[in-house]
Task: structure prediction
Amino acid sequence: MTRKSIERREFLKQAGAAAAIGFALPASRVLGANDRVRLGIIGAGARGQELMHEFVKVPNAEFVAVADVYTRRHDEAKAIAPGITQAFRDYRRLLDLKEVDAVIVATPLHCHARHFLDTIAAGKDLYSEKTMTWSIAEAETCREAAKRSNRVIGIGLQHQSSGQIADAKQWLNDGIAGKVTQVEAWMSRNSKRGHGQWIRDVPSDCVPANVDWTAFLNGRPARPFDPYKFINWRLFWEFSGGNVTENMVHQIAWIIGALDLPLPAAAYMSGGVFSEKDGREVPDTIAVTLDFPNDLVVTWQSTFSNKRYGLGERFLGSHGTIEHLMGTTDMVTGKAQSGIRYYPEKDNRPDGVALEGQAKAVNHMANFVECVRSRKEPNSPVEIGYRSAVAAHMANLSYRQKQRVTLETAMAGAAGK
Ligand SMILES: NC(=O)c1ccc[n+]([C@@H]2O[C@H](COP(=O)([O-])OP(=O)(O)OC[C@H]3O[C@@H](n4cnc5c(N)ncnc54)[C@H](O)[C@@H]3O)[C@@H](O)[C@H]2O)c1
Result:
């Protein structure tokens, strides 16, 4: 089955589910300012457990239920949050629980749209991990469903709550960067030769009796249980979007958020599986160019064979540069640099001075819980999830089609035209 036919079929199925939203929204509990927020989690794997550790620290919030197709995760989740009294393999049973106010979704990418749509259709608020969806068609469907519902929805693009994005927005609004025509972004990692990035060992209890493999496949063609793919789903297009949906999406969302950008007009992506030829399908070495309307080009490059420059973004403006770094090794001093800084361009701001970011981060998870009570929009709303997802998928489409992809062709493809 081709990606396009999977996309089309999933789109129609989910559009059907989404159409139901708005007609039959179940009544949800109205929370007062001091009420305890009761959480359920769907997908308590690596990220799900990280999120649980964060959410259990948020005052006046507690986990009451977990759903995961792999029974091992039930015990792991209960160990983090002993308040969990109900554990299911079928996430729909969690969504049936009246006592759950909000649901955290941290399943593999290809399941996000299903869990997104069904969670809000069940009248629950939703925190969904990034990338918001596996395809552009799903991103459209989820955004439409979100617009029709009155649910609070936050996306796991946690850097939207960072102090650095607040500093960048401030400097951009103050105009001290001038006209920004280019943003360069990069992300780099390394691992010991022979051990490719992201590869996880398969636990000995990862056997058919303990895993609902059909539910994991989520509409992909049926086949015998494959524990390697179940654990290492990130490496395969059927379930993943590779490093573009794992990591570029964070940085593109950051850039889109800081500059308030619309969808890209076009995308081009090159690269390949160069670091470790270990059977993975998704590339480890990547160069992406995104054209945005109004004279802006954004580039993002990544490698899994060298981590000297960590990750970062540079906004190149006529009046100044904004540089955001995380773990970049300075070539001269050998020291790691992190943080956000502004440097004036002497041509256009001769008296400008260099600045260092001062804004404090907001706790992203606490922000979501607070919004469940206040009904305000979380720091990382659906619109940011949507735009960053479409940008990521346009890049991947370009890589897979080996040609430049425009927004029009990407959208037409998603609509099955
Ligand atoms: N925001 C971040 O910084 C960040 C960091 C890492 C991962 N993530 C995202 O979190 C998500 C999960 O990544 P991970 O590394 O935790 O993966 P993982 O494989 O470790 O965990 C996924 C969990 O979902 C379960 N699952 C699979 N299909 C399911 C289904 N249909 N119903 C219920 N449970 C199901 C699996 O059994 C597993 O426990 C991905 O979308 C990833 O991109 C975000």
